[in-house]
Amino acid sequence: MKKRILALCTAALMLSGCGTAGSSITEPETFADSSQFAVYPSNTAIATGNNYCVQAEQAVSYRAYLPVETPGALEYCFYFSNTVDSTWGKGAVAYVNKPGAAYTVSAASVGTASEIQGAVRNEQPVTFSGQAQKSAAPSETYWSDPLTVDVPDGDYLVWTWTVQGDAIPATVMSDLAPTYAAKAGGQFIYTNEIPLPQLIGAKRDVKKRIVHIGDSITQGTGTPQYANAFWVADIAASLGEEYSVWNLGLGFSRASDCVTDGDWLQRARHADLVTVAFGTNDMQGGQYGVGAPNAASAINAWIAQIVTKLRDAGCEVVLFNAPPFDLPALNEGIRTELNQLLPDTAAQTGAALFDWASLLEKPDAPGRSLYGGHPNAEGCRVIADAFLSQFANRLT
């Protein structure tokens, strides 16, 4: 689709690319060849990380209709991680760095469609080291083979694959993209939990690779179904096709998940600029394996470590403070204290600070959300416009 070019981005600034939480956490996996990330930047603003697990004891086919940032004929390559990135809820089903079980891919394909649940056109197989099938080991990361896909302007990229296994890492989509599942011989029906590639990468030259890592507010929860109206997508649309935006937001995620430095944070390192937005779930559900709200000092320390890891990798970082979430008094006290600590953290780690909390709270009722705890489409547009205005010189 046509993108609106941001008039505010007039200054030139070229950045180089980027090259211990709680108990009972599995060590991060061995990572696949990272050089591919520089070749295939993300081409969708839809978040496809792993914060859940699905059971497919019998083979299940999954399909997703994904809007793309840059249409046309491009060489695509897809990246996969058989590990859970972040904790869902209390961690009963999925927790940070949980290895996925061994699973098999019996077939995978990619095509295009002009409408949701529309006929899939120009479908072609996706292969893995020249093979149509793939066996994924626990905690394995891997790439598909590259292939060229021509996505007409305004159409969806349609990903389809058939997998079988117990506890396959997946994402809870929160109605951000149309996603479906079908058992053998059955029809595709809606599902909100779907295993997908962690990167929908397309080979193209971009001015800047931008990653947004955070929780469900970054993922886009709370915006209209399939409307691409969350703030990450708004930023992508405003910047246009010369930029790559990769959404690493995951529902229920915490700073304590991200700081473990698993594949999730490793993926973020391959960006020129990274936004970091955590805190809401840390101050409520708290660290996996502990199950109580974390203190502001602990959350702040984890965020500082995350920013430092990204800065050490060569990334420019914009740190978001904690937005209003209509919290009880105890949790709101943690949020207030955290937001008092974060300006010094940003200064000490070399990050810029984005005060989205002041944009999202009611002027006469600090801590109460103006657009909902998960900001609606209007709130997301406010976030995107303010971010693009404040950081215009960093985005060109």
Keywords summarizing the entry:
single chain; 396 residues; alpha+beta; Rossmann fold; eight-stranded antiparallel sheet; five-stranded parallel sheet; 9 helices; 19 strands
The run of helices and strands is: HEEEEEEEEEEEEEHHEHHEHEHEHEEH
Tell me the overall shape.
globular
CATH-defined topology = Rossmann fold
Give me the number of helical elements.
9
Rg, rounded, reads: 20 Å
Would you tell me the structural class of the helices and strands? Answer: alpha+beta
Q: At the fourth CATH level, what is the homologous superfamily?
A: SGNH hydrolase
Largest sheet: 8 strands, antiparallel
Terminal-residue CA separation = 21 Å
| Second-tier CATH architecture | 3-Layer(aba) Sandwich
Mean pLDDT: 92
Percent of residues in helices: 10-25%
Low-confidence runs of at least 5 consecutive residues: 1-30
CATH class: Alpha Beta
Structural domain count: 1
Q: DSSP strand (E) fraction?
A: 25-35%
In total, how many beta strands?
Answer: 19
Provide a descriptive summary of the structure in words.
By secondary structure, this protein is of the alpha+beta class. It has a single domain, classed as SGNH hydrolase (Rossmann fold), CATH 3.40.50. Helices cover 21% and strands 30% of the residues. The protein is built from 9 helices and 19 strands. Helix 7 links the parallel strand 16 and strand 17. Helix 3 crosses helix 9 and helix 6 runs parallel beside helix 7. The longest helix has 21 residues. 54% of the residues are buried.
